[in-house]
């Protein structure tokens, strides 16, 4: 066997365009930069709409929780979102660099994944012989404005995937469960909670089994995206789907 000279570095697979994109697009810093325009448009849109604005339900829950513990400042929630992703980036020890090409690729990927999820909805309706109720199946529930869809993409993924999914996996691992089983159990548990959440509280819808089953499947879909593709892709796909379902009922 011929030894590789020590002065020649091994081939870095991440330098290839495809592998570099898949790795870089999962980084927390890249996710933060990617979702920042969505977050800014959502928060400014809500302020511009004033009292007529209808917030995303999870946004309301999170702000209510912050107010309950004594932190009622308006911009605290988006600031906390940014801080969580920055803390994750620091802990990951990944490079603090973002490529514009990767961001463009993420936008394209999110659009394609949103279309794929819309096809899943259509297939479910065919299998169950039920006609989808149009925008009523938006993952953001009763909130049907484009600004609201952006809030759903960010804050629902923040709560159900970044916080709850990660915490549930960690708790199950702490209890001695093997990683693979813990991930599967956490995905199913948080996806069930994700679906149930759309029927709870003043922003909840009237319960329909078709919508409940689809949101459960969609929750699994977003969990898989989060685990394999990162927070930015999951949030962007979620927002893209909600916008798509409003345009293509």
Can you give a write-up of this model?
The chain has nine helices and no strands. Helix 2 (28-49) packs across helix 6 (146-174) and helix 5 packs across helix 9. The protein is an all-alpha fold and 249 residues long. The protein has one domain (17-91, 98-247). The model is unreliable at 1-16 and 140-144 (pLDDT under 50).
Question: TL;DR?
Answer:
The protein has 249 residues and is mainly alpha-helical. The protein has helices at residues 17-24, 28-49, 57-68, 76-92, 100-127, 146-174, 179-197, 209-229, 231-247.
Write the topology of this structure.
Layout: H1 17-24, H2 28-49, H3 57-68, H4 76-92, H5 100-127, H6 146-174, H7 179-197, H8 209-229, H9 231-247
Question: What's the number of domains?
Answer: 1
Structural class: mainly alpha
The helix-strand sequence is HHHHHHHHH
Rg calculated over all Cα atoms: 20 Å
In whole angstroms, how far apart are the ends?
62 Å
Shape: globular
Identify low-pLDDT runs. 1-16, 140-144
Fraction of residues in helix: 55-70%
């Amino acid at each position: 066997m011929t030894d590789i000279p020590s002065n020649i570095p091994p081939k870095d697979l991440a330098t290839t365009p495809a592998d570099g994109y898949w790795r870089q697009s999962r980084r927390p810093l890249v996710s933060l930069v990617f979702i920042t325009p969505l977050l800014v448009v959502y928060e400014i849109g809500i302020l511009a709409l004033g009292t007529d604005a209808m917030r995303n339900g999870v946004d309301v829950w999170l702000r209510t929780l912050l107010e309950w513990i004594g932190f009622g400042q308006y911009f605290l929630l988006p600031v906390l979102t940014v801080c969580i992703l920055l803390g994750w980036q620091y802990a990951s020890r990944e490079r603090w660099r973002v490529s514009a090409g990767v961001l463009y690729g993420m936008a394209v990927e999110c659009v394609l994944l949103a279309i794929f999820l819309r096809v899943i909805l259509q297939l479910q309706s065919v299998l169950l012989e039920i006609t989808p109720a149009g925008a009523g199946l938006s993952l953001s529930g009763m909130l049907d404005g484009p600004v609201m869809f952006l809030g759903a993409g960010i804050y629902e993924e923040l709560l159900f995937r970044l916080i709850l999914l990660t915490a549930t996996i960690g708790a199950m691992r702490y209890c001695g469960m093997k990683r693979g089983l813990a991930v599967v159990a956490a995905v199913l548990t948080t996806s069930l909670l994700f679906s149930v959440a759309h029927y709870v509280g003043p922003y909840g819808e009237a319960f329909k089994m078709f919508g409940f089953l689809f949101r459960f499947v969609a929750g699994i879909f977003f969990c898989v995206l989060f685990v394999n593709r990162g927070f930015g892709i999951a949030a962007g796909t979620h927002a893209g789907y909600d916008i798509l379902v409003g345009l293509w009922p």
